[in-house]
Specification:
Layout lengths: L8 H7 L9 E6 L5 H11 L3 E3 L2 E3 L13 E3 L2 H9 L3 E7 L2 E6 H8 L4 E5 L2 H10 L4 E6 L3 H11 L4 H14 L8 E4 L3 H27 L1
Parallel strand pairs: 1-7, 1-8, 2-7, 3-4, 8-9
Antiparallel strand pairs: 3-6, 5-6
Helix pairs in contact: 2-8, 6-7
This protein binds guanosine-5'-monophosphate (5GP).
The site of guanosine-5'-monophosphate has 13 residues, from strand 5, strand 6 and helix 5.
Length: 216
Amino acid sequence: MVIFGKGSSLDHRFADNGLSGMGLVFVISSVSGGGKTTVIRDLMEVLTGIRMSVSHTTRKRRPGELEGRDYYFLSESSFKRMIDEGLFLEWAEVYGHYYGTSVAEVDSITAKGLDAVLDIDVQGAMQVKKRREDAILIFIVPPGEEEQARRLTKRGTENEGEVEIRLKAARRELAFENEYHYSVLNAELRQAVGAVRCIMVAERCRRKMKKESEEE
Ligand code: 5GP
């Protein structure tokens, strides 16, 4: 049975994955500089049938970011209106800005039989865990604070003070690791991507078994 390799027949079988058309919900969190963005980017290359859930945010668009691809950028008042209307599956304030995942975004992905991947912080992940018991939570752990700081500085999107704020937040967030279903060490990118891919394929198999036994 071929499990690995881009676009294997197995992936396609699971893309319309025999789950009554409903895809799974994967939450991926890390600390800043944990390398999560790179892991997710590479994961998209080696696993079909998954789609990133696009979040809403009140933070400013960074150079190169696109509306509707990277985020839905909106004002604080519009964001608060969405909270009041109960449109978010989860939302949180992260580094002074609001971020949230809409119920509609996740539903539109899973209704197509695709698995939704939510790249969200620990506060949001804990809300999803409560509201969607079927969600699978994966935590990406950086190899150490030195490497984490190096990644943040290399990224160049934060100044020195902001890097320090993010490192402090990371120490708090790492305490949530045990709340996740899986923990993946990101010391070596390929290995980390491989591990996340294995988790997702395994979860698809597990869900398929569950569904079959329920039908019997
Ligand atoms: P950035 O501003 O660097 O794109 O993201 C900052 C942090 O916000 C990251 O840890 C990211 O995972 C988190 N984040 C992005 N979207 C969401 C969301 O919809 N909900 C929550 N809770 N966190 C999010």
